[in-house]
Amino acid sequence: MSKTKTHEVLQSPAFQKLVKNRWSISLTFTFLMLFVYIGFLMVVAYQKETLKMPIGDSLNLAIIVGLGIIIFSWLITGVYVYWANNYYDAAVKEIKKDL
Fold first, then answer.
1. Antiparallel, parallel or unpaired: β 59-60 and 54-55
2. Each residue's pLDDT tens digit, 48-65
3. DSSP per-residue string spanning 15-76
4. Cα–Cα distance, 60 to 51 (Å, whole number)
5. Structural domain count, the chain
6. Residue 81: enclosing H or E segment and its boundaries?
7. Which of UniProt's keywords are assigned here (predicted)?
8. Which domain, by its residues, includes 81?
9. Residue 40 resides in a domain
C-alpha cells in the first residue's frame, strides 16, 4: 500500500471512529477491572474481618469474592471478544473493502 493511501485511510472518518470506539471499550473494561481488583485489595487492607465471615462449613467470604473476581474478568473478556467479533471486525472489513 502506498504512503498516500495509508495516510488517506488513517485520516478517514470511518477509521477514526473505529479507533475511538476501540479505545472507549478497552479503557472502560480496563477501568472496570481495576475498580473491582483495587476494591478487593482495599477490603483486604481495611476490612479483613468482613472477608473472614464463614459461609458453610469450609468456605469464607474471601474465597467467594475471589472466585467472583475471576468470573467477572472472564465475563468482561467474553463481552470484549463478542464486541470485537461482531462489530470491530465488521468495521475493519468495511474499511478494507473501501481500499
1. antiparallel
2. 899 999 998 889 999 999
3. HHHHHHHHHHHHHHHHHHHHHHHHHHHHHHHH-HHHHT-EETTTEEHHHHHHHHHHHHHHHH
4. 7
5. 1
6. helix 61-83
7. Membrane, Transmembrane, Transmembrane helix
8. 23-98
9. yes
